[in-house]
Amino acid sequence: ISALVTADTAFLLASVSKVVTATVVLKLIDLGIISGLDGDICTVLPSNMTNTTACRNPHYPNIPVTWRMLLTHRSSLK
């Protein structure tokens, strides 16, 4: 079965988004916008998002979630 592709056609990205995300994070490090892979993600989130639900695991609120954790799927954020 074939269908026409339109501007509203949705495509599955599979694992391509992981490569794009990692590239963007590394570029942000290169530009000095984030300090490194082990930097706290709360430092770059908008101020209205820097609460425990946005950038902290509620079970471990004193442990910062880092870019490395996000990229390796170890942040435990939903």
Strand content: under 5%
Rg from alpha-carbon coordinates = 16 Å
Q: Helical element count? A: 3
Poorly predicted regions are none
Q: First CA to last CA: what distance?
A: 36 Å
Oligomer: single chain
Biggest sheet overview: none
pLDDT averaged residue by residue? 83
Shape: elongated
The SS-based structural class is mainly alpha
- Fraction in helix: 25-40%
**Helix and strand element order:** HHH
Compute the number of strand runs: 0
Task: List key phrases describing it.
single chain; 78 residues; mainly alpha; 3 helices
Provide a descriptive summary of the structure in words.
- 31% of the residues lie in helices and 0% in strands.
- The chain is built from three helices and no strands.
- The longest helix has 15 residues, at 16-30.
- It has 78 residues and is an all-alpha fold.
- It is elongated, with a radius of gyration of 16 Å.
Task: Give a topology summary.
Layout: H1 16-30, H2 52-55, H3 67-71
Brief digest:
Helices cover 31% and strands 0% of the residues. By secondary structure, it is mainly α. The protein is elongated and about 50 Å long.
